[in-house]
Predict the structure.
Amino acid sequence: EVQLLESGGGLVQPGGSLRLSCATSGFTFTNYAMNWLRQAPGMGLEWVSTLSGSTATYADSVKGRFTVSRDNSKSTLYLQMNSLRVEDTAIYYCAKDIEWGQGTLVTVSS
Amino acid sequence: SYELTQPSSVSVSPGQTARITCSGDVLAKKYGRWFQQKPGQAPVVVIYRDSERPSGIPERFSGSRSGTTVTLTITGAQVEDEADYYCSTAADNGRVFGGGTKLSVL
């Protein structure tokens, strides 16, 4: 059974940084592209980033501020978020193809 | 363009058939996917590759395509199907989502 467990969310001030983690199990991690998506409170779904092999792509809204990476030895995906803005407040989900985790809440507020 | 258009709301009575459409030029070359999201829960894929149903998803959920429009059909909708539904497809850079449809079953 595929399992995706996000962690690392919390309250951070504007301009601050946070690193999210997504621990995975139940599949061969190295064989799959992995994704981060988010959902602001009361809003729809938004793609954030994809890491396929060593190729990372980002939504324009986070480009230059967020960095996605993976540790294949730990089957874990990361999202380093810098220069956070109020509008980055959202639940962040990790996803492998059609499977999604339960998400972790990031709140950016002073 | 990379926009997907869905109706904001659909309402049916229990046992009726609910249909939610999703249109966009980007669908011309890409498969459509449908997510169900209930309040306070993570999204769940109910249809992928236009019409494929993941294991564990009830048979009353089906998907179809006509040109650049994909449709989610719930045949014999149940009260527990009341949720927000989002369509999605792959874009040249990532994924794009529709704005979501609130399905009411009452």
About this structure: The first strand of chain A starts at residue 3 and ends at 7. Chain A has a mean pLDDT of 97.
